[in-house]
Amino acid sequence: MAKKIALLIGVSEYGAGIPPLLSALNDVQAMERVLQNPNLGNFAQVERLLNPDSVAMRIGIQKLFKNAGKEDLLLFYFSGHGITNDDNHLYLATRNTAKDDFEATAVDANFIQTQSKSCYSKRQILILDACYSGAFANGWHTKSIGVDIKKQLGAEGRVVLTSSGATQTSFAQEGATLSLYTQYLVEGIETGAADTDNDGNIHVQELHTYAKSKVQAVKPNMTPDIILDKEGYNILLAYAPKNPEAEYRKLVEQYAPNGELNELAFLVLKPKRKILGITDTKAEEIETEFLEPFCRRLANLQSYKQAFAKAVEQKYPLDEHILNILKDYQQDVLGLRDEDVVSIELEITSVKEAEYQKQLQIQKQREAEALQLQQRAKELSQLRFQQEADRLQRQREAEAAEQLRLQQEAERLQRQREAEAEKNKSGYQLKTFQFETAQINKNGTGIKRITKSAEYFTQDLGNGVFLEMVHIPGGTFLMGSPESDESPISSESPQHQVTVPSFFMGKYPVTQKQWRLVAALPKVKIDLESDPSRFKGDNLPVERVSWNHTQEFCARLSLKTNQTYRLPSEAEWEYACRGGTTTPFYFGEIISTELANYDGNYTYGGGAKGEYRGKTTEVGKFPANPCGLYDMCGNVWEWCEDEWHKNYINAPADGSAWLDKNSESRLLRGGSWYNDPELCRSAFRYYYNLDFNFLNVGFRVVCSGAART
């Protein structure tokens, strides 16, 4: 009488150099469960070998094939490490197999083939859930056996199921107790899902096809294989369970071939639950189990996307070393094919690649320009060598004379500036005022108050309103941000030396009271609104004025006073703002809302958060800077005369305004009540269009005109 006999071997522990496999013994237990079940596998004899040594494994294999009869169905199952030698020949590792002696202590695949070929059984199934188990096929030879038995009895011959290709890792299941291939072999039998033709029987090819599709849904790079003696052989392995759960599962698979159950599918599935007598909880459990491999594959794709994005962010283009690591992670850990990750990599690298190509183009252009300059220099050098000695001497003498002339001209201009500065200073009735400035320590725990004095004159605007102009002595300073600043940006560099002649600057930003008086003067070019500000108050700074408005203001004021009033140049503004300091703020390394009006919800350096007033404050509310100027930091942005340039390359070094582009953008300095402290640094630069006005934009004026009578 024909019997169904099985030998199940699981090896989880190994010798030196071979990592353990936590799932191997669980694989054997699961296979034993479905094979012994009389309603499923109905195997009469199932023997287990758990962590055998090489001798015990050979004896068990020999016994399996030797004792089988002609009509018996014989199944050999192995879960553990498969090892191949340099000739790609497979060995099954045992408990006493170590990395350095595997050929002597593991079981050679040839041993299994020899036992199989000498066996009387005409129906043999070998299942290898092992790394590189596909190599078993390389030495497999067909034994001539008569065939053409009825389908329900299964075809005669041998069938080998392998969990992976000949050069692939058989992937473990993250967070699961079973290996990936075995999990879906067991699932296909236990749920009946592998019975794709619904005849109540599960043939070996049906089972392999089901398990392979599930494995590749999780890890597309893993390719389980089936090896047949002859094409068309099929062996009846188990019976499909007939129960409502199995029928419902087939419906779920039918309506979600791509791993997605949409609302339309549930229009059928929910009524079917009632017809089949399945609870919603059980139905949802079946749906979740079916969708699980698709969800895991999406998780693997997301894991690769995160790893690839992180690598690109750290360095681009990726070097060969990183690419090799990503390839191993993609294929050997996540089991993804190259085509699975192409769109991910393209999405992440598209922007980086465009930037990279742009930089390459710039670099090539620079190299070409450098080569061209080098060639021109070489030609010029050759030309010079050919010139006559007396011409060279005359040229040197001419250059020396020109240098002397330039030096004399520079000295003359310097004397002229000094004379004009002294004239300007002496032409005004200067008075002295005392003021309080402050210094704050790095952690913001202490503010030191300092009393200083400065010279100024007053300009009468009428109606008891005066414009106070502080004398700013000339000098030389470093303009821009040093590398030590917390947040330097490219527009603030390179730091460069500028010599600024003396001038007078408004002690405060222009107030609304001062604006109204000048706006009432005769028009020069454009109309001025008498009260443009959002926040109302005589001593609040005027705001919502454009650069064009400030030009009209200065023109009207100059005509009234017979003096030249204008906006400060950017260099004059920063020179006056710093007042001899080199720290980010004229108060020190940090800033506090006790010292200026800005958005105190933000901090700079070691400073603390403070008050956010949400509007302008009256001028002079806070301590002055070292020159006696108030509100140079915060309150309102202040227009400068200069056009916007993206950095200081080729900037003037004499304190004059930089006007060479006919640009529609003009400089703003100082930050405002609306901004965080970083924008209030002495070196920070910003810009708006000529006609831009906003409720945080104002200005102050400077005067450097002729003497007053």
Summary, kept brief:
The protein is α+β, with helices and mostly antiparallel strands and 709 residues long.
Description:
The chain is of the alpha+beta class. A six-stranded mixed β-sheet has the order 2-1-3-7-8-10, sandwiched between helices. The chain is elongated. The longest helix has 49 residues, at 338-386. Helices cover 37% and strands 17% of the residues. It has helices spanning 24-36, 54-66, 102-105, 109-117, 180-190, 204-218, 244-255, 263-276, 280-314, 320-333, 338-386, 389-426, 512-519, 547-561, 570-578, and strands spanning 4-10, 45-50, 73-80, 82-84, 90-92, 107-108, 123-130, 157-162, 201-203, 225-228, 236-239, 431-440, 447-462, 465-472, 475-479, 496-500, 503-506, 565-566, 637-643, 665-669, 686-689, 697-698, 702-703. It contains 15 helices and 23 strands. Strand 13 (447-462) and strand 14 form a beta hairpin.
Fraction of helical residues: 25-40%
Distance N to C terminus: 133 Å
Q: Show unreliable segments.
A: 137-155, 166-173
Q: Average pLDDT value? A: 85
Question: What's the arrangement of strands in the largest beta sheet?
Answer: 2-1-3-7-8-10
**Largest sheet at a glance?**
6 strands, mixed
Tally of DSSP β-strands:
23
The fraction of residues in strands falls at 15-25%
